[in-house]
Amino acid sequence: MNNRTGEFMVFKSKATILTTAGSGSLWVFNTELAGYSTMGNRNQSSDGIAMAWKAGAELTLMEKSGLLRIAGGYKHKWYTGAGDASYENVTIVDANGIDLQAVTEPGWGKKSQMADRSGRTGPWADIRAGVLSGKYKLPFYGDFPAMKDIERKVTWDLMLGEESTTRIITSTYEEAGFDPAKDLLQNYNLIEGMSLPQWRETASSGIITDWNLKTNLDGLYAAGMQLFSPGDHSFAASTGRYAGRKAADYARQIGQAALSKEQVATEKARVYAPIKKTAGLDWKELHAGIARAMQFFCSEYKTESLFNMGLDTLKEIEEKWVPTLFALDPHKLIRSLEDLSMLTHANIVLQASLARKASSRVLDFQRIDYPELDPAEWAKFLTVSQDNGKVKVGERPLGYAGNLKENYETYNKDYQGVFKG
Question: What's the pTM?
Answer without folding.
Answer: 0.85
